[in-house]
């Protein structure tokens, strides 16, 4: 079965060379290059975008950020009641 997604070889080359520039002693298997050099790099880049998106949604009143008893920041729909989370929240319901 053929791979259904387009692969941009030039972008991959740029990412690989960028990783090697930051980590000149790096060496890994094909799976390691995928997992550690590419995926991890993309996740970290996406994290910056995620933080920016959440901040914008919060400033627009769409998302509320609250601090739980555990000190962590929790995000939820701004239209929910303003009850603060208690203890450790779950991803599904927002409460234990």
Q: Mind sketching the topology for me?
A:
Elements: H1 9-22, H2 30-59, E1 63-67, E2 73-77
Antiparallel strand pairs: 1-2
Word description of this protein:
This protein has about 100 residues and is mainly alpha-helical. Among the domains are: about 30 residues; about 30 residues, no CATH class. The protein contains two helices and two strands. The protein has a two-stranded antiparallel sheet. Helix 1 packs across helix 2. The termini are far apart. The model has no long low-confidence stretch (mean pLDDT about 85).
Attribute tags:
mainly alpha; 2 strands; single chain
Compact overview of the structure:
By secondary structure, the protein is mostly helical. It is built from 2 helices and 2 strands; from the N terminus they run H-H-E-E.
Described by its quaternary structure, the protein is single chain
Radius of gyration: 19 Å
SS elements, strand count: 2
Q: If helices are DSSP runs of H or I spanning 4 or more residues, what is the number of helices?
A: 2
Helix content range: 40-55%
The amount of beta strand, in percent, is 5-15%
**What structural class is derived from the secondary structure elements?**
mainly alpha
């Amino acid at each position: 079965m053929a791979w259904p997604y387009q692969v941009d070889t030039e972008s991959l080359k740029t990412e690989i060379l960028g990783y090697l520039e930051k980590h000149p002693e790096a060496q890994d298997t094909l799976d390691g290059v995928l997992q550690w050099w590419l995926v991890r790099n993309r996740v970290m880049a996406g994290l910056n975008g995620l933080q920016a998106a959440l901040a914008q949604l919060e400033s627009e009143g769409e998302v509320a950020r609250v601090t739980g008893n555990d000190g962590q920041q929790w995000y939820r729909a701004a239209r929910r009641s303003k009850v603060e989370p208690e203890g450790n929240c779950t991803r599904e319901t927002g409460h234990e």
